[in-house]
Automatic annotation (TrEMBL):
Domain DSBA-like thioredoxin: from-to ranges: 3-204
Species annotation: Blastococcus goldschmidtiae
Residues annotated as signal peptide: none
Phylogenetic placement of the source organism: Bacteria, Bacillati, Actinomycetota, Actinomycetes, Geodermatophilales
CDD domains, A to Z: DsbA_FrnE
Protein name: DsbA family oxidoreductase
Membrane-spanning ranges: none
């Protein structure tokens, strides 16, 4: 069974959703037969590459609220994240274009390191307040999970995976995604948003049951209830 998750590495709800999916998988009896695939989706693909800006005032302006109100909203989300074991510092964050980070994730996938890099990028951004927006910020994180520095720099320079990021985003739209995280199981069942672990577990169970229907064996000679055919 395949679970595809469209998300961005600077989406706070995406990290919460990742933890909730992991909790659901821990409770799922067939978890060893589930493949999780992280797909690319940029919250703001129009952001200029190579530039960053403080997140707090930008979000306040975007939603037409005060900086203090946005700060309070962020505190609420930080509490939600803390319940999943995550330590956020949202008001201190910076934002930028995440295209390079997604390209790097596709390189990691070729080496079987996409899951590890996805976690490392999210942890670096949300819990360590590190940049994930440029080559020099991304290279050491990639090396930490076992990727070759020279290959990483080459891939992020020649942009060989740019098409793969665009393809992921286009597929998400085709499947009905309007935001992230967006969970899809076997391209049949979808769950938008950072759903509770219980909901994701139900999604897994339903998909598994539909893919593995019970087989009814025709009855053999024998007894039925308290009577026997002679």
């Amino acid at each position: 069974m395949r679970v595809e998750v469209w998300s961005d590495v600077v989406c706070p709800w995406c990290y919460v959703g990742k933890r909730r999916l992991e909790t659901a998988l821990e409770r799922f009896p067939h978890r060893d037969q589930v493949e999780v695939v992280w797909r690319s989706f940029q919250l703001d693909p129009t952001a200029p590459e190579g530039e960053t800006h403080p997140t707090l005032p930008a979000l306040a302006a975007k939603y037409g609220t005060s900086v203090e109100q946005m700060r309070e909203n962020m505190r609420g989300l930080e509490e939600t994240a803390a319940a999943e074991g995550l330590e956020y510092h949202l008001a201190d964050g910076v934002s930028g274009n995440t295209l390079l980070a997604h390209e790097l994730l596709h390189l990691a996938a070729e080496h079987g390191k996409r899951n590890e890099l996805k976690e490392r990028l999210l942890h670096a951004y949300f819990e360590e307040q590190r940049s994930v927006f440029d080559v020099e910020s991304l290279v050491p994180l990639a090396v930490e999970v076992g990727l070759d520095e020279v290959e990483v720099r080459e891939a992020l320079t020649d942009r060989r995976f740019r098409w793969a990021v665009s393809e992921d985003s286009a597929t998400a739209i085709e499947l009905g995604a309007r935001g992230v995280p967006f969970f899809v199981v076997d391209r049949k069942y979808a769950a938008p948003g950072a759903q509770p672990a219980e909901v994701l577990l139900q999604l897994l169970e339903r998909a598994w049951a539909d893919a593995h229907p019970l087989v009814t064996v025709p009855p053999a000679d024998g007894c039925a209830d308290d009577t026997c055919a002679v």
